[in-house]
């Protein structure tokens, strides 16, 4: 029995609302808390709206029935009351399950030392409430079955621990015996489940009886109202259990209704590991849309292959089997749905042909006037190359080798992804539950789907086609208990085809028009003759289909082949590939010469440093770069890093100019893409040199090449060259394998159609960054330190004819004093003093958008919330996750995450049409796991920004002729924190950051007046007068406002994540309320920092003796309040590095100071390298590469000053000019006209020495004969 509350140890970490907890406090007042709860008074207030945090506590809690309650001590003798709890742990956590290598359990000696038998006690958990035995395993398995019956996607969850707390017959706090005898008591329960890694967490709430609404007399509810909620704590967010009118009227309705009405009344289920999401079905009625209630519908999986023909499970409204339900997909067909039970519907998705988020609406198909409106949610559709749910068929690039390394290829899937169609359709008649194993026993077929873009004579267009070519094998889906989480592993025999769906003529002819395809695993449809209507299933990534080819006398009639037959097959593939390569060469040559657009508008950067800093136009290749740590790259293997265009290449008007001027026309999106690969020295690899350098078949010199079909697709993603992932394989990647890998001596044909870029048209971007405590290095080379809390226009570009409007804002907050000891709470410091502000401001959030794009927010998470995720990425007011898919495309925005370090600390956002890119890092993307002194990251953002040259910003910061050029070319005026003085001359590129640039009052006032959003700073900022340069700049706060199309999601819990500060201070630190100004923000100048460090070093090193008592106390107080730790080491370690000194002195962190110093120095060096002008002559096109070598082989051969020498092997003589140099050619009649080119010469080639000698002898013989004839 508990009174006020009891804290217990959970013996492992349970995730809840972004935090990790290994303890909880169980209270008689109906909650599990994770912090101190202020429960004096009739009402227990929690949440952002009801508490003044941090002056008052806002504890994180799971509250099934939050109000003042008591455990009755008197009353009906038969009434048993109390609070009971138990911690259930799975035996496998301690090596005690069957088959364990420890074999603990019943063989242990019995002991009652800890209050229970040793066979019942869990190792390391001496408390009697912890249990891990066969009964605990059974209980956890039952809880998983409960979840499967009510939660979409819960079949993938394995519960390893559970906390069960039951409030039995509790009464309101001021209830008397008459109330208790009248049955006004409450019995309810919390079951909190998690897995062993602490990544997923679910809560089940059970309500047996609720006899009171509040703690007031006779339940008249005038005070102490009861609530059922989940509170994230510290104003993170709050979620009500039942956001309905009936619940508002009387909370007792929770015991009458249910989220799983087909199972039991009074039961509700939630996923709670991050932002709390309700599961089960909703009782929300009254014609209101769920999206305007509290949460979106729960859909699993919510990341779906765009090829469709898959199923998703939906939690929405409570379902009726007699009705038909549909899932309406924005701008696409509807998906029919089947009712699994009252809480879950399963919907069959059609082909979507889209990449990005689609809003979906779940509703009955036939609705009357009184029916509910549609429930709203979203599904993110991805191409098959990025689908995290795709069919696993082993190393994907083994499928692109000839001959295949093995004709027994692996295939893996999770059996619970498939259900028996016959049992599934009769689910309501048979009474089968989702958790029953029999439902998953089904025969699966493995199908080969061919893809091509062919001419459709009916619509007079070329269009994509997906056709079922064959069924390779049949598998039995294993439905036993151990395969609930274990994947099923089988083998594909590529030497055998069970059934062809092509005629003999089509197998000899049409088959070879499908250059690429994919595999699909799906339940077998009875009487399936032509394979045109396959059931929903899993599809693989695109693969080559050459393993289906064979000579006419060998048609997969057997299961094994001899080595001779294998060789014949490989020779046939090589011969057929040569024919297909020639066909592709002719076909591609008939199309528009897209190289004009790729080289003119997206020429490759000349060196890798430029590509790395050009965030808006180029991104690391998702498969061939060190950023994504993906080594499965064979098409362009040999490069150190590859980059690709971050958006579709934008073309421009290229007419004769007689009618229209190119400057007055908008750019337009094409379906082309660019790929640039760099060697170990950081120089571009060139396709013309590949045949000369290549010495063996699998040689590692494979340069990048432009793409006719952009890999990420082109809106509307339906036509030729537009399908993401598939069009590029059909038009670009597969021709590379046909010409360069499968066929002999045809790679040069491919590179003639796909020549690499030589950076002749490339112009670098203007790049800037802000790091640490407001240390700026702007895009036009201004360097300063600026500290002032508020929301600022980081970059603003007005809309012009050629460019969209761009809006970027950042939020700067006062960084908390990390020297505050939280252990002193309640003894020496109050709740309000836990978060004490310093005089340093850091960036905690950034938001950006452009014309026609989604609005993106990236914010650092609050303290104690940065365990799993260090940042929140919110797109269109919806929280997005990047665990399984690191690259996501939204409306006009591309976002990708370098998740090498845990917690998505490094995020890249690209505004596609604007070509502006941003890199956001949390705490310098440090690996916090390797820093033993830090439990979580530091909670600050640093930002790097790249602006392309089309906006007229010079990368070296020169603004001498900017006004003239802006008027002449109608360029937009770019301004903001990253370009605060667009009308002033910039500093020298070589000038560093000095102490005079630290919070200079001249700079500060201009920035505050011109770029701070009015009212976003400290109290009094709403009265600031706008500066002259702020005219035309946005005045609305993008963190607190929403676009019209996103306002329906404003009520979601993530709204608090973006709108509120992460370091909220108590009102006592508000300078407006403190007349003395003790806590007023005081920007520290360079002189202040220098003086403070000198004083503190003096106190540290000078041992003052015989001080008066008061003087000694003053010295001690000054040192404690104003001095950083070890001031002398700061001066010694940082030297004259201003960024290091400033961060070290104000942020109190040696790690942050050194990281800031490294970030500043590396950026300065990289920018100097990137803005350098590289002059390119292009690569030399070698037409006859046979027996020729390049010296040196891997050196740069395209930049000014480069020398390229070509030689022949010892069996051949070199002919033509074999040595070239790239240099400048000046028209001396007009010195302003110049170009860069190679010296003139004839094409080098190699002639056999035998043939050369033969020609010499022939020449001698004919010469002698000629002389003789002349003499005669």
Automatic annotation (TrEMBL):
Protein name, entry field: AMOP domain protein
Any single GO CC term annotated in Swiss-Prot or TrEMBL for this entry: membrane
Which residue range or ranges hold the NIDO domain? 112-275
Keywords per UniProt: Membrane, Transmembrane, Transmembrane helix
One Pfam assignment: Ig_F54D1_6_2
Q: Some GO term, biological process aspect, for this entry: which one? A: cell-matrix adhesion
Mostly located where?
membrane
Q: Which residues form the AMOP domain?
A: 573-754
The cellular location(s) given in this protein's UniProt record come to: Membrane
Q: Point out the coiled-coil segments of this chain.
A: none
Annotated SMART domains? AMOP, NIDO
Q: Which PROSITE patterns match?
A: AMOP, NIDO
Keyword Transmembrane helix attached: yes
Keyword NAD assigned to the entry: answer is: no
